[in-house]
């Protein structure tokens, strides 16, 4: 672990001059501070309570280089979950951690919505930022002349300077500090007050399938700010194919008074990839937040969701589905911080484990002393399809207020034997019966997806894949 | 020459958790017949049904069960169903997340494919099942609901008979179909079962109370006591049991056994 820390620090020193914002003191300064935090914190070990069941030693044993820029039309891995995502209306595609301008398009954004590359915003590169924000390749002259684009560009840089790092301070978690020092690109999304952006914005992070020999790493950072009474839907998608890779992704989001953020994370990394991602959200008064995490890939994939219910009347709904198979460990950590009174949270995570797959689920709910009239419901259910599968489930409730409604339940079991026999007694063979019951178990999470086009697409994909899943073969 | 009996059970013995429940069942059922099996709680009625259906957790320790002359006991549950065996459960399980339509279509097509028949597409399935739903007076809305989820006792039993109607088995075993039913539900269920009587179909009706047999008049009635069939007769046997209970049979068994033999060992006698 010490060696890995040293390697990362060396990478931070080495990469700093070429990372976005190197010429801006605020951004460069933030990176240096993050490097110092990382030097102090290092990477988490299993002695860390939050990492008790997940060892990063396999990750530390690999020496990663920063993923090189991919060729212009590099082959992209295929997605099982959303095969049509590249045809989405609003799409930012990042290949090997860099925006692929040619294959991205933000077409027809509502007035008041800024979507751009964080790297361009950090560099204060108005032309590039504007080009992305408008979804066109624009010359500098055109950018200067076009008022809206220029304004958007300036806004983006200002937003970055104001908000970056606010929600995900790097001083407590080593992996966040590492991200703060090394992030190379990502999306900046800003929705002005009162603006409803009701079409999903897809942020796709792909490792090109170029058969790179060396293990390569990608650090991405996304920033989402939803001003009061605005609405936005963001879908983050992580894809890689074969090859040893390391993805470190942090998304920070602020959902201001009365605003709404609907967020999805689809994690489909390759089976030799290490993936760590954290979504850090602050909710203000009456804000609404829903999160769905679907995790199917990675050799080791950990998704964290940290929510601060930071003003009265905020609502958070967290859903997740993890489907590890042999050779995989899929880890989830959620944190719901009820810091103010009269907030509501609801959480439902389900896991289906096959082969020798492993999962860890830690669900923490914190209710502060004066967070009265809190309502917090938390459920985790796991189905083991084979004897070799293993899950560690830890619901953790820390409640200091006395006028609250908090419930939690975690269950681990197998498919209902009575239901299985019932289906078989009607002529349905065992494999199909197991698939039907597994599909039924998973359907609750899919049914909870509020964005209709996503829900339909996932229903079809999961139904098609469930049969092989239940029969214990590898791919979804 | 007599046709091969639909069901031949010879000296069937089975245990649950090491405890012997069936202690030598003999039973022969021919196509077109309705047999009733009655007995007090704990006599082994449900065990017999579950062993014939192939449920796990039951250890067959002796004897045999032949379906159309072929051994039933080695067959997987789905194989038995595809061969035309149907068990109507005493306590039908709820299956959230699986709709009745999805389940029933998968089942009927599995059975039809096994028989070399054309499978049904969604439209064909719907019209096929509509007629059967009328038989058990079930609203089409049930098709979209999850299997048995939130169903009353009567609705669950009607769903069992609906499945029987749709799957058209050759041998149907009804395990305490009347338990938990009110008068109206009993009438509907019985009417449905009666409509499914056919010369090429056999019914084994397991029941605790006699009243079902007023509607489903059996050709033969058997009494199961202590894991064995101790008496067989016509429909009047059921009425006798209704009047006198099971005690007299237990006494008969005790008195008939030579001194020194364990209670429960009886020779079979039939009362015509």
Explain what you see.
The complex is a heterodimer of chains A (476) and B (272). By secondary structure, chain A is of the alpha/beta class. The radius of gyration of chain A is 22 Å and the shape is globular. Chain A has two domains: 2-311, no CATH class; 418-476, no CATH class. In chain A, the strands form two sheets. In chain A, strands 1, 4, 5, 7, 9, 11, 13, 15, 17 and 19 form a ten-stranded mixed β-sheet that branches. Helices cover 26% and strands 36% of the residues of chain A. In chain A, strand 2 (90-95) and strand 3 form a beta hairpin. Chain A has eleven helices and 20 strands. Chain B has 272 residues and is an alpha/beta fold. Chain B has one domain (7-270): P-loop containing nucleotide triphosphate hydrolases (Rossmann fold). In chain B, 36% of the residues lie in helices and 27% in strands. Chain B contains nine helices and 13 strands. Chain B has helices spanning 45-53, 77-83, 100-114, 122-135, 153-167, 183-195, 212-215, 235-244, 247-256, and strands at residues 7-16, 19-29, 34-38, 58-67, 70-71, 85-88, 95-99, 146-147, 171-175, 202-207, 220-225, 228-233, 269-270. In chain B, the strands form three sheets. Chain B has a seven-stranded mixed β-sheet, with helices on both faces. A four-stranded antiparallel β-sheet of chain B has the order 2-1-4-5. Chain B has a two-stranded antiparallel ribbon with strand order 7-8. Mean pLDDT of chain B is 89; it is low at 260-272. Chain A binds chain B through residues 416-419, 421-430, 432-433, 436-437, 439-441, 443-444, and chain B through 53-56, 76-78, 80-82, 86-87, 89, 92-93, 95-98, 102-104, 106-108, 110-111, 114, 146-147, 163, 167.
